Predict the structure.
Amino acid sequence: MSAEPHPNVARPIPLRERLIFALDVPDLAGAKKLVGTLGDSVSFYKIGLELATSPHYFELLRWLIDDGKRVFTDLKLYDIPATVGAAVRQLRDSGASFLTVHGDRAIMEAAAKEKGAELRVLAVTVLTSIAEADLKDMGVTTSVGELVELRARLAVASGCDGVIASGLEAARLRAALGPRALIVTPGIRPASAPGVDGRGGDDQRRVVTPRRAFEAGADHIVVGRPIRDAADPRRAAAEIQTEIAAFFR
């Protein structure tokens, strides 16, 4: 498929790379088996904390890259700035395309300083498992949308390439950040799933459909369980790819 520019985004992105699959499995063997099952229906993979606590995280990263895949290292780095900067230096030549950090100014600045030319640093705004009531429990008086925008503006000002944010806030962020900032949207559920466009049926509470995420200006969507737990994961991924292609046609 050809690269098509999103109406709200300056740079073109190959259509098949719009979908990022969350490779949330416990071990290397399971990850490789699932990648084999998905075949050419997925070309961009997110590997996160579950695999990071296995002994084979970087072996899997290299295996995916050698197989022609793009990789999103979803590690949500959070530590003192010097430690985060050192960790980013270790990752910047790994071949990974994206890396996540938490939205603290000093952390984001340290990560941006060390990311190099190829690695894109994305700041986590507010996790899609968090709702308004959870913010109140934390003593946060602003709304989810206000907090997401505040952190997103700070991320771009700190040198990050973009943000991780729910599709419920993507339109607001695209308007606030302009066309060049990356917006990567997790918490994606098919239109047939219960509770989409607001509330998920699991721990993802601020969720949207693929179409709504892209209509709002997202660059990429991250999909995990709806593909991984499907009776036919390859078919589930292919159906989402077809939906993406139809939207950008």
About this structure: Residues 3 and 13 are 5 Å apart (CA to CA). The chain is about 40% helix and 15% strand. The domain at 3-241 is CATH 3.20.20.70 (TIM Barrel). The first strand starts at residue 3 and ends at 4.
